[in-house]
Design brief:
The chain is α/β, with parallel strands linked by helices. The chain has helices spanning 23-34, 46-56, 72-86, 110-135, 160-180, 198-211, 215-225, 234-245; strands at 14-17, 38-43, 62-66, 91-94, 141-146, 185-192, 256-259. Strands 3-2-1-4-5-6-7 form a seven-stranded parallel beta sheet, with helices on both faces. α1 crosses α8 (234-245), α3 runs parallel beside α4 (110-135) and α4 packs parallel to α5.
Length: 265
């Protein structure tokens, strides 16, 4: 019997994490590496990838694969490169996902809508499809989709594309869990509250401007919506991902797990 109080051990496991050079993805990568896993991370910027590897300093247990998750070929190449390098993929974290071009539905552009669809939803589908083919050969796998508190509510203006595809990601999570649960493969989603990552710092001010508030007011709105009256942290999200990736998480699938400080209570 596994000791529920034991430290999570991912020794011998291989994880692929999209968008893993900074923010939540980077935090999850570091947590997995500390638990003994080998990790492949993905991102669009090779310089940021090289910097991340140098900072992580995990030697041959970490690789960076450049690519844009809104492109199917890049996503499939990421999973294939992970398998070619480490021999398998046990854990997939679909972390990459965002949106731009914030506007009311009546003004939202086709490009912004399609970008969000590919960035949040299509990328997770492409990666999961590729990873499941490998996981199924061993009847073992963990898929963790990084959703959002906005995937469980719709109370922010001008982000309908982000809200829509995070809701869809939650549905995809449940569909994968239903199909694959009997084969030793779990699929769950984490639903963080606001975390001030590099992506938040980049896209948050534009979203705030369309809402008629400052970036600081935008962040404080999330904090005040939460029972803990603060933003969540990368480490809090990474800790939950670590549990779901472990043997201790084997009995959890199809769950949309909030890490949002009690938002919406």
């Amino acid at each position: 019997m596994t000791n529920a109080n034991s430290t999570v051990d991912l020794t011998g496991k291989v994880a692929a994490i999209t968008g893993g050079t900074r923010g939540i993805g980077r935090g999850i990568a570091e947590a997995f590496l500390a638990a003994g896993a080998s990790v492949a991370i993905n991102g669009r910027n090779p310089d940021k990838g090289a910097t991340a590897l140098a900072e992580i300093n995990a030697s041959d247990r970490a690789i960076f694969v450049p690519g844009d998750v809104t492109r199917q070929d890049d996503v499939e190449n990421f999973i294939a490169t992970t398998i070619n390098t480490f021999g398998k993929v046990d854990i997939l974290v679909n972390n990459a996902g965002g949106s731009s071009g914030f506007a009311p539905v009546s003004e939202l552009s086709d490009d912004s809508w399609q970008e969000a669809a590919a960035w949040i939803l299509h990328s997770a589908f492409w990666a999961a499809r590729a990873a499941l083919k490998d996981m199924s050969t061993r009847s073992y796998g963990r898929i963790i989709n990084i959703s959002s508190v906005e995937g469980r509510q719709a109370n922010k203006a001008n982000v309908s594309h982000y809200i829509t595809f995070k809701h869809a990601l939650n549905g995809f999570t449940k569909a994968v869990a239903f199909e694959w649960g009997g084969q030793g493969i779990t699929c769950n989603a984490l639903s963080p509250g606001a975390v001030e990552t590099d992506l938040m710092k980049l896209s948050g001010p534009a979203a705030a401007e369309t809402m008629g508030v400052s970036y600081e007011e935008f962040l404080d709105g999330y904090a005040q919506d939460a029972a803990i009256k603060r933003l969540n942290t990368v480490d809090e999200v990474a800790a939950m991902a670590l549990m779901l990736a472990s043997d201790l998480g084997g009995g959890i699938t199809g769950a949309i797990m909030p890490v949002d400080g009690g938002t919406g209570l």
